[in-house]
Amino acid sequence: MSKFVFTPTDSHELSDSYDAIIVGSGGTGLSAAIQAKELGLNVAILEKEEKLGGNTNRASSGMNAAETNVQLMHGIVDDKEDFFKETLKGGGLLNDREMLRYFVDHAPLAIDWLKDHDIELTDVTITGGMSKKRTHRPASMAPIGGFLVQNLLKVARKEQIPIFNKVKVIAVLQDDDKKVDGVKVVIDGTPKEIHAKAVLLASGGFGASKDLISRYRPDLADYKTTNQDGATGDGIKLAEQVGAQLVQMDLIQVHPTVQQDHPHVFLIGEAVRGEGAILVNQEGKRFVNELSTRKIVSNAITALPEHSAYLIFDQGVRDHAKAIEFYDSVGLVEHGEDLASLADKIKVPADALEKTVKTWNKAVETHQDSQYARTTGMDRGVTSAPYFAIHIAPAIHYTMGGIHINSKTQVIDENGNAIVGLYAAGEVSGGLHGNNRIGGNSIAETVIYGRRAGQQLTLFVRQH
């Protein structure tokens, strides 16, 4: 089957005005544009990079939602209230509760909306900080990000939504009454004004911005990042120019399992641990509950003398986390026919590794991890040869802070008032995740709040 290729609209077709302009072509921007177009709006997506999809392309684990039909098909009886409480706890109780409530309540509807567009997430796994399998992913177990972007682009093409790449937005325009009036862009070095009644900033976070990281978290300035090069906080800077308030900018998530021994940095998705992998140190011993929140696991790895660790798993785990095929294809995975040969390759004591795995397998059998109280990701032990290891260390992954918005995605200014006609959603906004984002919640946010933004843009344009 040939791979779907989406061709961006030629920049010469960029009109002087639209009902609404969406800045950014990741999951948030695509979901918003599709929702708004289906409600009758004339919209356009502007993307500064050549490649479409932004950081969404790099998401691997899945999309969280509770009380879904998919969960019931798998025999999982979940509770939205548990999802709410666990996300709040995971975020250090710093989450915007109104935003979180909308998020939790509308997550199953977002799964259904995707299904209505032939984007089916029929398998479930689990991520850190969650008590139930509520991370939805394709039946193929393929990484969620590329799957979602490709399929949303198919819908966008069917809906004839113009998506322009290599168009950089440099300012949000306002009229004399401070109402949003469009954007100023640069195309091939030439500035142009495009007018619109509403603008949505869906341009992602600032995980690849050395200047913003240095300003808000100088302690992380030398960390590598899992983000694509375009994640430089442009939307945050655009919003600041028109008086938007920023929130929680110092809350930056470090992802615990990132392979950094190669020129390219590769995030090893949480689903690998969710399907049964364990972490060991250079002594071949476990040192943390692998499915604690990302903050806790990252801190535990950083506290090791070597500041890195190994993910250890077997063929059974590999069969349930298809992303491992990709990790192996680019040379990230060490192989061993038995644990002793694997230990030799990663230079940890074989007897210690064998003892660790034996203890872990016993914990899985009894569902009682007396060492680190792990209760999830225990469907299978590390029992089926061959055995595998991936060397990992923490890296900058996600920026929880950003533009202050309310649950209607309206951008809030320094005085607490909505900036008329300006909206933001996705990682460019702050508040939803508190001080630690739960794995599987970012993709959920892109669809839930992308749809929300599309609906709110439509209501606003109809009224004006």
What distance separates the N and C termini? 46 Å
CATH topology of the largest domain, what is it called?
FAD/NAD(P)-binding domain
Overall average pLDDT: 95
What is the CATH homology-level superfamily of the largest domain?
FAD/NAD(P)-binding domain
Uncertain stretches: none
Main sheet overview: 8 strands, mixed
Q: Which CATH-level-2 architecture of the largest domain?
A: 3-Layer(bba) Sandwich
Please report the total strand number as a whole number.
20
Shape, principal axes of CA atoms: elongated
Report the portion of residues in β strands. 15-25%
> How many domains make up the 3D coordinates?
2
Assign the structural class, choosing from mainly alpha, mainly beta, alpha/beta, alpha+beta, or little secondary structure.
Answer: alpha+beta
Summed up:
The protein is an alpha+beta fold and 464 residues long. The protein folds into two domains: 15-207 and 400-463, FAD/NAD(P)-binding domain, CATH 3.50.50.60; 254-396, Succinate dehydrogenase/fumarate reductase flavoprotein, catalytic domain (Flavocytochrome C3, Chain A, domain 1, Alpha-Beta Complex).
